[in-house]
Amino acid sequence: MWSRTTGLLRAQRIPAIAQTARQASAQKSFSTTIAAFGLFKDYVTHLKSTSVEEITPAELNAKLTHDPVTGPLPSFHLLDVRETYEWNEEHIPCAVYTGRGCLERDIEGIIPDVQDEIVVYCAGGHRSVLAADSLQKLGYKNVKSLQGGLGQWKNQGMSVQQNN
After folding, report:
1. How confident is the prediction for the chain on average, in pLDDT?
2. Do 60 and 121 lie in a common domain?
């Protein structure tokens, strides 16, 4: 609606149109979300089969408990790429936090040697596959993703560090 006093166009809410727009948006959002998740899972599956190697929770646990006194080798790194709030609840002992959103920017400061062994994990094993692929594209040579993520780690009885 045009305002003669200000000379500006003012938005006017028309309830029937607003309701129709909300319904269309909700339907589109829902269908797009389902389709996008399917594409996402397909892409992750493709990466697992072509470029990203996975490590099982048992294999990772063996690396972490390699030497009960010193822990894993200095050239071994366990990266948690979940969201900050997830890290703040719990994480795998010996893990280093770097959110998925900052990984490419921050990784050289965390792990300067591209030859070091890196295992990346998230909650369910999807984000970590994407992160591992990204690290490989940056030139890191020995990168794996934790199969099933923290969920599978815990389901197999492995320990987590709780943050209070």
Report:
1. 82
2. yes
